[in-house]
Design brief:
The structure holds two protein chains of two kinds. Chain A is an alpha+beta fold. Chain A is built from three helices and eight strands. Helix content of chain A is 31%, strand content 29%. Chain A has an eight-stranded mixed beta barrel. The longest helix of chain B has 27 residues. Chain B has one domain. The relative contact order of chain B is 0.08. Chain B is mainly alpha-helical. The chains are: A alpha+beta, B mainly alpha. At the A-B interface, helix 1 and strand 7 of A face helix 2 of B. Chain A: It comes from Sphaerisporangium corydalis. Chain A: This is Class E sortase. Chain A: Keywords: Hydrolase, Membrane, Transmembrane, Transmembrane helix.
């Protein structure tokens, strides 16, 4: 009896330690993968841009498999992530992803991005701090698109209206270029989604 | 369990200690590099997309 209890106790302690290690993996192990991948993607984007300058008209995003770079000055001067095309589990492990089928950067309609909030380097961890008027800068194919935050919302995970061409109005035809960022809410949960909206405020050619 | 492992590992206390540390490290590496990456997609801590 005593041996049985002891074995149970030891197994429980072991299970606890394994779970603790798993939490560590979720918070830090996953991030190291994303950081490594982001370094590769950013280098490819830089090289592609250099290639564009040298050879003329090869679009940067074609070669790198990325849509462009996202920068949010409110979240720090170093805040910069390469945005991938696609929002599969594997895409999002590598960085924020662009919903296929939604507008491209600067295009009329809704440019929709998703990113992790707590794991995989948590690119969208602090987007809840964004305020109306904050800049979201997208560098893509040699152009710089500056969006300004227009609102925030917490929605149900099934609320696909937020990624419609006109957010919230799936039946309307878009006339403006807008951006939508989605991530999980609250942190460490899959219960809801935090959504940040923005409107295109300017385009520059020299990015 | 741990007592039994300690008993079946050969050698003196020093050798046993080193063996145990190596075994624990190996278990940790297998968990971190193989088991956790397989487990992670099934843990709903960070779902970020919207969809039906």
């Amino acid at each position: 009896m005593r041996a049985l209890l002891r074995a149970c106790g030891e197994l429980s302690v072991t299970a606890g330690l394994v779970m603790l290690l798993f939490c560590g993996y979720l918070l830090w192990g996953t991030s190291s993968y994303t950081e490594w991948y982001q370094r590769v993607l950013k280098r490819e984007l830089r090289d592609a841009r250099a290639g564009t300058a040298a050879h003329g008209n090869r679009p940067a995003h074609v070669r790198a498999g990325t849509v462009g770079l996202i920068r949010i000055p409110r979240l720090g001067r170093d805040y910069e992530y390469a945005v991938l095309e696609g929002v599969t589990t594997e895409d999002l492990r590598r960085g924020p992803g662009h919903y296929p089928g939604t507008a491209m950067p600067g295009g009329v309609g809704n440019f929709v991005l998703s990113g992790h909030r707590t794991t995989y380097a948590a690119p969208f961890n602090r987007i809840d701090e964004l305020r109306r008027g904050d800049e979201i800068i997208i560098d893509s194919t040699g152009r710089r698109y500056t969006y300004r935050v227009s609102g925030k919302q917490v929605v149900d995970p099934a609320d696909v209206d937020v990624i419609a061409p006109v957010p919230g109005h799936p039946d309307r035809t878009p006339s403006k270029a807008v951006i939508t960022l989605t991530t999980c809410h609250p942190e460490y949960s899959a219960r809801q989604r935090l959504v940040v909206f923005g409107v295109l405020a300017g385009t520059r050619d020299d990015a | 369990m741990y007592g039994w492992i300690w008993r079946i590992i050969p050698g003196g206390t020093g050798v046993k200690l080193v063996t145990v540390l190596v075994l624990a490290g190996a278990a940790g590496v297998v968990l971190w590099c193989v088991v956790f990456p397989m487990l992670e997609p099934h843990v709903p801590v960070d779902r970020v997309t919207v969809g039906p």
